[in-house]
Write a structure and sequence with these properties.
Keywords: Cell membrane, Membrane, Teichoic acid biosynthesis, Transferase. It is a peripheral membrane protein. This is CDP-glycerol glycerophosphotransferase family protein. With 382 residues, the protein is of the alpha/beta class. It folds into two domains: 177 residues, Rossmann fold (3-Layer(aba) Sandwich); 195 residues, CDP-glycerol glycerophosphotransferase, C-terminal domain (Rossmann fold), CATH 3.40.50. Helix content is 33%, strand content 16%. The strands form two sheets. A seven-stranded parallel sheet has the order 3-2-1-4-5-6-7, with helices on both faces. Strands 10-9-8-11-12-13 form a six-stranded parallel sheet. Helix 2 packs across helix 14.
Length: 382
């Protein structure tokens, strides 16, 4: 308790000192996890392209990046980064980094990294432990999501603005990913598997399940890699796997199959892409409790939910922010590989029987269905 009070006092003192330092009204600090991703990347790209008078500064975790024109890079936590932070008018993050030391003459914008289906922060069973209340400007995609974001962070609802998520602008870019990833030109049906994490490899105490073992990335009891590969071959499909950043260190020996391809955050970053650039080219999505499907609904394409651990996962999170969860997940729910392949086969035959349900949920979750989310965020806060 004493240590926590000391940390809180130190942040308060630092915040007061930062207040005394003159601010550059055109300097913006960006920080995301992973580096250069999600909503922060999308907003940074938009400002760099359309408002060149702003000075864009990125704080990064890795040290092997080369700065691009118009962007300065600093290693997070260094003295030089702290000075950049102290002199910036704007701070934009995806995980509430550095929020405790912002001063009263700075504008902090928390874009977060997705609209939550699962309970997070103050709504969570355990997430709230150790949290502190820090107010900032936040964004949401609809009135329903504004209420949830406000509850998750104990934020005043009128500090949460319905702008849409900047990263969803990438869903409408049909050229960039094809220019940089030749595998998107194969002509095969593209199936994207994007699960949320169970094992938090960065902080194991916050895990929500077991690690992936023996290549069983589907986490099903009837996992059969050879049967899966054969199915993909016979149906002219290619399966892309993007694990959550918290699980990307999992070793998967799958690259021997030409029908299965793993995408990692570093590959996206080195090609200046975001996962939503890839989503734009996928014919169907397989996920579980990841908020990625809220984004994908904007494309009005089939979604299948693979949830073999629904009860256990729900218990680990204390339930979901949106209940009953079956309603808010508009697609077929399966718990085995056999069921999953049967559903993919049904969708390949053109039987998208959840299209109407998906449209209803999308109307509630996503107010805006265009590529002007970054523009709305910019006009609201800058």
């Amino acid at each position: 308790m004493f240590k926590k009070s000391l940390i809180r006092m130190s942040k308060k003192i630092l915040s007061c000192l930062i207040y005394l330092i003159p601010k550059d009204k055109e300097k913006i600090i960006f920080k995301s996890r992973p580096d250069f991703s999600g909503n922060a990347k999308a907003l940074s790209d938009y400002i760099q392209k359309n408002h060149k008078n702003y000075k864009i500064v990125w704080f990064v975790e890795a040290q092997n990046y080369t700065a691009t024109s118009g962007i300065r890079l600093f290693k997070a936590g260094t003295l030089s980064a702290i000075w950049q932070y102290a002199t910036a008018k704007y701070i934009v993050t995806t995980h509430n980094e550095m929020i405790g030391t912002k001063s009263g003459n700075q504008t902090y914008i928390s874009l977060w990294h997705g609209m939550p289906l699962k309970k997070i922060c103050y709504l969570g069973e355990f997430d709230h432990q150790g949290m502190e209340d820090y107010s900032s400007y936040r964004i949401a995609t609809s009135e329903v999501m504004r209420a949830i974001i406000a509850a998750c962070f104990r934020e005043k609802a009128n500090n949460v603005y319905i702008t849409g998520q900047p990263r969803n602008d990438f869903l409408y870019d049909k050229t960039l990913a094809k220019e940089r990833f030749e595998f998107l030109l194969s002509g095969k049906t593209r199936v994207f598997y994007v699960p949320t994490f169970r094992e938090n490899q960065e902080a194991n105490m916050y895990s929500d399940g077991d690690s992936i073992k023996n290549n069983n990335f589907l986490r099903v009891q009837d996992f059969d890699l050879y049967a899966l590969d054969r199915f993909l071959q016979q149906n002219n499909c290619q399966l892309f796997i993007k694990l959550h950043p918290y699980e990307e260190n999992t070793y998967l020996d799958l690259q021997l199959s030409e029908n299965i391809r793993i995408i990692k955050s570093e590959e996206l970053r080195s090609n200046d892409l975001d996962i939503n650039h890839l989503l734009a080219h996928m014919d169907m999505l397989i996920t579980d409790y990841s908020s990625v499907y809220f984004d994908y609904m904007l494309l009005d394409k089939p979604i299948c939910f693979l949830t073999p651990d629904l009860d256990a996962y729900s218990k680990s999170r204390g339930g979901f922010a949106l209940e009953p969860v079956d309603y808010w997940m508009p697609g077929y729910h399966c718990s085995t590989q056999r069921e999953l392949l049967n559903e993919i086969e049904t969708l390949l035959a053109g039987n998208d029987r959840y299209a109407g349900h998906r449209s209803c949920v999308n109307a509630i979750i996503n107010l805006f269905k265009d590529d002007r989310n970054s523009e709305r965020v910019f006009k609201q806060f800058f």
